[in-house]
Amino acid sequence: MPITDPTWIFFIVLSIILFAPMLLERLHVPSIVGMIFAGLLIGPHGFHVLDRDGSFELFGKVGIYYIMFLASLEMNLQDVQRMKVRAGTLGLLGFIIPMLIGFLANRFLLGFGVAAAVLMAAMYASHTLISYPIILRYGLSRLPAVNIAVGGTIVADTLTLLVLAVVGGMFKENVSGWTWVWLVVKVILLGLLIIYAFPRLGRWFFRRYDESVVQYVFVLVLVFLGAGLMEFVGMEGILGAFLVGIVLNRLIPPSSPLMSHIEFVGNALFIPYFLIGVGMLINLNALVSHAEAWVVALVMIAVGLFTKWLAAYTTQRVFRMSTDEGWLMYGLTGSRAAATLAVVLVGYKIIQPDGSRLLGEEVLNGAMLLILVTCVCSSLITERVARRLAMNRHTEVSDESAVLPADRLLIAVNNPDTVGTLVSLALLLRRPRSASPLIALNVVLEDDPSARQSGLTQLQRAEKMAAAAHVRMQSYSRWSVNVVSGISHTVKENAVSDLVVGLHQKEKLVDAFFGKLGTDLLASVERQIFIYRGTIPLNTVRRLHVLIPRKAQFEPGFSGWVERLALLARQLSCPVDVYSGKETLQALRHYGETHGSRIDPRYHDFVSWSDLLPLAHAVRQDEMAVFVCARRGTISFQNYLDRLPVQIERYFSMRNILFVYPAQKSVRL
User: What is the C-alpha to C-alpha distance for residues 526 and 492, in angstroms, rounded to an integer?
Assistant: First the structure.
């Protein structure tokens, strides 16, 4: 002891990651707590099975970057935009209250100097989203309270790290007032660089490379580039990782395979490694042997827990949120780790003119105990509240499922070039918590048996894409005398609610726009049909433009396509522009208000039905035009819909196009 062989070090760490959750699940203790305690037991201040070597430094840094990156990546930017006042309030209160109360406690109760008291107060003001993986496990990452807590994190930690930079800089040579101005300027310039350049670089890359491993590595490169640049200008890398997550948010939809890969690797390896490393820093022996250290630690813990609770409670009361939402915000913002470690280590390394350290051993050990206690309390509170909210939400979803249409999507695959785009669209249209699998169908004509093997290959590719996003898929290779008959029968046999097909590719100038297949499908299938043509990947679409015919609100499938398009917009985190007549727009507003839609589209009274040129000018190449159509003989059918294909060929040849034909009968399982 300690073990130094890399093979056995990695084996022990992986064993902890594997068995700790299994053991603690029976004790109803969050696995995060188990990781920290395991690090305490096996670390240099426990049984000294392992040293805190370079691997823990490396993976620990990766883990905290991963937590911050995931937190910003999982945010719904549209919700954050609406809740920026609440998030800013929580962030400011979470910084100001701990700084004020902490400074007074450090100065008058513990007797520290002004600089040391301010730096210790900064430890109380910072927080780390240690319990965020619990939110991910319960599928609550898009709750308003979670978005407020995540948004408040960046405010509180940014101000905390600025305090750290100022206090730390006071003990450096050749420091002037311009030093702080130059620091702020560098941080602003770097932030603008990340905000402006990284999304454009991401869109360019995703449009050219669709291999999952390459995309994942590219995302990690951007995360560490942002973190490294932030450290280079004098701030902590967690701010850079958080900012990169925000700018990449719209390029990585929650239901995409790439998001599944990012969450899987982080939760399986990097984040547990970081938590074990945090536990290895805690030295209980120093606390036992020094009574003064206990006093410092107890004051730090009491102030740390109380001030963050007060900030969350005040935010809850000011904005009239529920008690569970207040406790959830407290659970997320109550733990300390990354920024607190940065503050205490900087203070420990600073040597004052009299030769003493700015923050001594008692503060270092007190900070470690503060990290341990706050992480445990935060995890327990978050686990309890998240479980309760998840159960309530499950009840709401069950009630909602009785009202919403069934969620069984069928993807008709035939062209190898469009399999990936159609599966991606179906994943984004599917309700995230739906228990129904996706269905993929390839129809083999009886007079062309040689096409069967190609169809099976396409079905296998579709299954792999769905599996990468943790979605079940049923695939069928069906023999039929014609494609329409095969699709129609499969729709009826599987009670399909939505059919997703690719747009017909014209081979001859005289061919119909939708082709004979599309035209016959519209006549044979009464379920909702999505006909899609993609020119750029869906995750790089920046805005949806939705054209809706007048009287569309009177169709039986009105709620079906509204829910699907709203879900698509939320998945893409992109704004929506809606064009229609006044009465239809009013019906859409009313539907959104009564059903609690979380999108806030811009409505346009559209009158240029005979010529779509004004709409074409509004749709850029990185945006998508959605045309809600109508079958002939239905209430919302208008003669101008017959001329729609000609205008689309003329004005939208280089745009992503989605046609939606609403269901003609209500679909229930």
Answer: 10
Give the other-Cβ count within 10 Å of 171's Cβ: 16
Question: Do 250 and 573 contact (CB within 8 A), yes or no?
Answer: yes
* 510 has pLDDT over 50: no
Same domain? 500 vs 623: no
pLDDT band at 173 (very low <50, low <70, confident <90, very high): low
Secondary structure class of 655 (helix, strand, coil): coil
Whether residue 24 is contained in a domain is answered as no
Look at residue 283 and tell me if it is in a domain: no
Q: What is the 3-state secondary structure (H, E, C) of 167-196?
A: HHHHCCCCCCHHHHHHHHHHHHHHHHHHHH
Question: Does the pLDDT value for residue 366 go beyond 70?
Answer: yes
Number of domains into which the chain is organized: 3
Q: Is 43 inside a domain boundary?
A: no
Q: Report the distance separating Cα 591 and Cα 315, nearest Å.
A: 30
Q: Are 514 and 565 members of one domain?
A: no
Q: Is residue 17 part of a domain?
A: no
Which residues is 409 bridged to in the sheet? 498
179 with 107, same domain?
yes
CATH code for the domain in which residue 455 is found:
3.40.50.620
Q: Which domain holds residue 608?
A: 534-669
pLDDT of residue 110: 87
Cα distance between residue 373 and residue 154, in whole Å: 22
| Cross-strand bridge partners of residue 605 | 580
Task: Read off the amino acid at residue 191.
Answer: G
For the stretch 602-629, pLDDT in tens is: 999 987 777 888 888 899 989 999 999 9
3-32 pLDDT, tens digit per residue, is: 888 899 889 989 988 888 788 777 766 676
Sequence-separated (6 or more) residues with CB below 8 Å from residue 228: 237, 240
Same domain for 97 and 174, yes or no, is yes
What are the structure tokens assigned to 111, written together? 């007797």
Domain boundary residue among 396, 428, 454?
396
Q: Which of 127-156 are b and which e, b meaning 16 or more Cβ less than 10 Å from the residue's Cβ?
A: bbbbbbbbbbbbebbbbbbbbbbbbbbbbb
pLDDT of the residue at 176: 62
Q: Which of 506, 529, 552 is the last residue of a domain?
A: 529
Q: Are residues 510 and 573 in the same domain?
A: no
Q: What type of residue sits at position 455? A: G
Integer CA distances (angstroms), 387 to 318, 333, 383, in order: 25, 18, 6
Q: Which are the contacts of 550, defined by CB distance < 8 A and separation ≥ 6?
A: 580, 581, 583, 584, 636, 638
